[in-house]
Structure formats: structure tokens, C-alpha cells
User: What shape does this take?
Amino acid sequence: MAGCTAPRQGHRTASGAAACPVHGGRDRPYGSYGVYPPRPSYSSTYQSGGSGVSPSSGGGSISGGTRPSWSPSGSSVTYTPDQVRALAPYRRTVESRAQLPDIRDLFLCHAWDDRRGVAAKLNELLEAEGVSIWFSEKDILLGQPFMREIDRGLAKSRAGLVLITPSFLKRVDNRGVSDKELSELLARDQLIPVVHETTYDEVRKISPLLGSRHGLDTAEDSMEVIATKIAELIRV
Assistant: This one.
């Protein structure tokens, strides 16, 4: 009886499997001796815990980009594969804290210099999307202990959003309040970075750990689009 050709020719192709005198044949079921299964598509790598692209849960490829599982089917925004990959861990954090009572959606970490400029704009855009924000400009009243209120805000937020600007990097480098907020968010793995008017290369020069946490960038999306993506990410 002729021997199996797998050691010499393998069964990785249909022709190789069919040519084997032992295991060949068109009627053999797909399985251990047949053609090897194809490698999974890109979208199938984002199916654990509902935290990535999953065709079965509404995710998948769409024109111009990728739709993660947390993005509703009628969404007007698209994501790059890198964005989906970067945001998926934050989605898992959000889901793990979804049932906590009396909690905000986001803690907005920002530089003091940005509080009435880009940070205020991002806060307004997120609130317009229905996101509840802990924002120092409105949540710390005159006379309240600043650091204690920040600590409470961090504890009572589902996730943290850090607005990384040149001013923010300067504050972190000088070990100001922003540095303390950032350290806590990094320790809790709650951080969603948004880079504005700087680059991740510049971030890594100041904080390699922060620079390793990729998120969103206004060089790729407008602030309005970023606000929509964050709203979709934290909505449970």
C-alpha cells in the first residue's frame, strides 16, 4: 500500500491533499487530514469580550476604514485598524466599570494653560455627545481642596481622557498637577490619550510610558470626530 505523502509533499494545498494515496479524495471531510484552515482575517482578531472588530456584533470592514464592535451601525465616523487596536483595551476597562453607581463617563486630564481653550472645547463637544465629564473648570468650586477633589474625580470616573498638548508636556516635565493625574490614570490603565499639536515622538521624550499608550490624534481626525469616537467608546 502506498504511504502517506505528508512528510514529503504536505497537505497544505488542495492538490497536495488530493494527491496523497492514503488521505486524498474529494469526499474527505474538512479536518485533521484535509487542507489546513486559512489564516483568520484581520477582523477576526478583535472578537474577545466585545472589545474589537466583530462581524457578529456589528463590527467589520466598511468603506474607508474599520468599524469596531462598540461603534453603532449608523455611525458617521470610521476608524483605522491602528485606532481599533489602540482603543480596544480602554473599551474593556469601560465595560468592567459599567455597573459602578454614581460614576462619570470620563475624567478630563489637561494642562492648566488649556483649561479655557482646547480643553474647554473638547469638554463641550463630549457633553454634546451625551458624555458625562469630570472637568476641573466646573467641578472644583472656589475654596475646595484642589488635589482632594481631583482624587475624588478620578475615583468616580469610568475612564480617563488625557489631552496631550505642548502645554501638557511642559507641565508633566515640571512635575505639576497634570503629572499627578497622569500617574494615577496610568496606574489604573484608564487612560485614553488624545494628542493635539504635538506628536507621539515628542510625548516619548517626556514620558516613555505615556508615549507607549496610543489613542487618537487631531492630526488624523478633527476634534469633532474625536469627540464622537470617544463617545462611542465609553457608551455602554
Remarks:
- DSSP finds ten helices and seven strands in the chain.
- Residues 5-15, 25-51, 53-58 have pLDDT under 50 and may be disordered.
